[in-house]
């Protein structure tokens, strides 16, 4: 019995088929000796192997060892690598069949993963066979089994080893967050960084602060370059449904930190505050473990918030501006120019602190779109 293989046709246009059973090399051996008019007893005698061993090989109960393959080469005139390859292919097929049986019981796990969005973004390919789809997703996460995935990410979430900024309004789903973080891990591998240096990173933040007025096609490359020189990889990864994450900070190795941004709210005030918030986590906790250790306590988030606020708008300057009580577009733009930052950042801060309604001065903010949305 055969089944149609995924994809339906190969590059030649012909349908491709893959058997759902494994053919033991003993069947080929039996056909070979029968064509030669040789019995199992005679083969056993000529190879010097017990008749029972030859019979078990033919029935698929015993493997063809490298030694046996050499003996078969001498007796039958068929190269040893032919028999070794048959045996290897047989064992691989058995393993594949067993894996499919095991994975068939775990396909429901895919419901916990934002698969459609991952396929849309091109992170994983779409497979018509559900088992192959499951294998594709496991490959994406770099794990062999669903059990291994649960163990890896349970450790991350239970120990709160990720410092990330997310929506306070909605609950996030772990599968979506894991898929989003994994994409950042993958993308960060392609960013070459110097060894992390906290002093250099602090200096880099001042330089990055000065490019908040630049358009994305300029500031993205610049901030990546500047941060990489200090040992931090900056990656932009689109938000996934139900992830509701603005940004994350973690370590991929002892010398390389990652700041991952999602553009969740797609305005420059949120983007820059999130970046400096995550930069605060990197600087405030430098244990340099595989992931940035994070207790999840409110105090830690508040500390990162204060760092971002101070880095973007020094508290003394902000207090003087607020005390003047003038929040017109002209005054905001003048204050932003004085600080050397984008006006939208000032607007976002004033809105957050209730000095401005969220409906006011939004024209001073810059709105972003992912290239695939534009």
Automatic annotation (TrEMBL):
Task: Tell me which SMART domains the record gives.
Answer: HTH_XRE
Q: What top-level branch of life does the organism fall under?
A: Bacteria
Q: Quote one Gene Ontology molecular function term.
A: DNA binding
Please name the Pfam families in this protein's record.
HTH_3, Peptidase_M78
Checking Gene3D superfamilies in the record gives:
1.10.10.2910, lambda repressor-like DNA-binding domains (1.10.260.40)
User: What region holds the HTH cro/C1-type domain?
Assistant: 29-83
Q: Which CDD domains match?
A: HTH_XRE (cd00093)
- NCBIfam families in UniProt: antidote_HigA
Q: Member of which family? A: Belongs to the short-chain fatty acyl-CoA assimilation regulator (ScfR) family.
- This chain belongs to the protein called HigA protein
Q: What is the lineage of its organism?
A: Bacteria, Bacillati, Bacillota, Clostridia, Eubacteriales
């Amino acid at each position: 019995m055969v089944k149609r293989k995924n994809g339906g046709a190969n590059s030649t246009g012909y349908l491709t088929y893959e058997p759902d059973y494994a053919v033991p090399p003993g069947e080929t051996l039996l056909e070979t000796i029968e064509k030669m008019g040789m019995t199992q007893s005679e083969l056993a005698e000529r190879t010097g192997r017990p008749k029972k061993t030859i019979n078990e090989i033919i029935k698929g109960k015993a493997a063809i060892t490298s030694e046996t393959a050499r003996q078969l080469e001498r007796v039958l005139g068929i190269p040893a690598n032919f028999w070794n390859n048959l045996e290897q292919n047989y064992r691989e097929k058995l393993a594949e069949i067993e894996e499919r049986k095991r994975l068939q019981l775990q396909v429901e796990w895919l419901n916990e993963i934002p698969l459609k969005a991952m396929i849309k973004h091109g992170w994983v390919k779409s497979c018509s066979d559900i088992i192959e789809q499951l294998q594709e997703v496991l490959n994406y996460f770099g794990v062999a089994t669903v059990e291994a995935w649960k163990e890896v990410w349970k450790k991350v979430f239970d120990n709160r080893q990720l410092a990330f900024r997310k929506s306070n309004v909605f609950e996030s789903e772990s599968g979506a967050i894991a898929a989003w973080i994994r994409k950042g891990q993958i993308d960060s591998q392609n960013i070459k960084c110097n060894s992390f240096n906290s002093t250099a990173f602090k200096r880099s933040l001042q330089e990055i602060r000065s490019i908040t007025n630049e358009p994305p096609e300029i500031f993205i490359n610049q901030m990546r370059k500047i941060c990489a020189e200090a040992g931090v990889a900056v990656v932009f990864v689109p938000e996934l449904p139900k992830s509701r994450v603005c940004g994350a900070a973690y370590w991929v190795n002892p010398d390389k930190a990652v700041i991952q941004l999602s553009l969740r709210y797609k305005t420059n005030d949120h983007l820059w505050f999130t970046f400096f918030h995550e930069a605060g986590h990197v600087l405030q906790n430098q244990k340099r473990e595989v992931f940035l250790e994070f207790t999840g306590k409110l105090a830690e988030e508040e500390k990162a918030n204060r760092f971002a606020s101070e880095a973007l708008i020094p508290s003394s300057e902000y207090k003087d501006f607020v005390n003047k009580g003038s929040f017109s577009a002209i005054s905001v733009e003048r204050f932003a120019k004085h600080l050397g930052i984008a006006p939208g950042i000032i607007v976002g801060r004033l809105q957050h602190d209730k000095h401005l309604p969220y409906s006011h001065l939004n024209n001073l903010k810059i709105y972003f779109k992912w290239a695939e949305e534009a």
